[in-house]
Amino acid sequence: MTTLNWAIVGTGEIAHDFADAIRQVNGRVFAVCSRQMDRSRQFASECGAEHAYDNIDEMLRNPAIDIVYIATPHSNHRSYVIKCLHADKHVFCEKAITVNSEELQEIQALAKEKNRILAEAMTIYHMPLYQKLHTILDSGRLGALQMINVSMGDPKEYDPENRFYNPELAGGALLDMGVYALSFVRCFLSGPLDQILTSVHKAATGVDEQSATILQTRRNEMANVSLSLNTSIPRTGIIGCEKGYIEIREFSRADQAVIHYTDGQTETIQAGSTDQALAYEVEYMNRCVQGEQPEHTMDLTTDVMELMTRIREKWKMHYPFEKITSSKPEESI
Fold first, then answer.
1. CATH architecture of the domain with residue range 6-121
2. Crossing angle for the helix pair 37-47 and 13-26, nearest 10 degrees?
3. d(CA 88, CA 123)
4. pTM more than 0.85
5. Which residues of 166-180 are buried (b: 16+ CB within 10 A; e: fewer)?
6. What positions carry a catalytic annotation?
7. CATH class of 127-274+303-314
8. pLDDT tens, residue by residue, 10-19
């Protein structure tokens, strides 16, 4: 495989982890960018990058860069993706790729115009376990899917300025952890949603602190999604079918699932490795950019973003920097 030149925007923990994955799969990180040059240089030194920048426009003028990985707060994703696409770079952007469907449609259209690959860094789409589970479900041995239950809770210290609670940074549980939960749900539901019922508790800053959402498809499949920044809830996904249910713990990077059959028997399914979750993403993007396979996750990303947009509309909540084109009056945070 040809070694591609990856650039990383952002220097947080996930950026460091992803740099390790790039080096594992691809051999090297070519460039890094942070608004603070000292942080950029330190990150470059740690990951062996040849170039450090404190200005994304300057970085994007480097013609040797093939792919840009964006690991900044959600509120910056749209503007950085647009800059990268206009510079003719392929883009792999952390979840949530944008804050609403309108933004996603805009960058999708630009990626198509520029003939560049655009994808969201959603581990669930690339874990081998999920491919294996789809094969099992498609075989019919568990019967028809009936209900999905998924929960995520991770208590965060309340700080109006951090990315979890600051509306200017598109804070809240939905875009941070809910995108995982809803991506899990969308991977297994058969099709379009017919009903959405949801309730939310907002923090003092106005962002969603915890919520409960019920979804239903036209085939009467249902899903329950519980999210919280207030309490620790196991990251567990349950897929309930006619002849049993599948339990997946730590589902965002899972390499094991347990099938519980209605007769009391259990079966453990294993595939892939949790430790390789980010490496699977790098491998996928490399193959797409080199024309070895088509990009096939954006349809799922689009559906999930549409779902999150509809949920926030029901909460009558939008971020201060969002453009609202709906004819319905909305409540700003």
1. 3-Layer(aba) Sandwich (3.40)
2. 40
3. 25
4. yes
5. bbebbbbbbbbbbbb
6. 95
7. alpha beta
8. 999 999 999 9
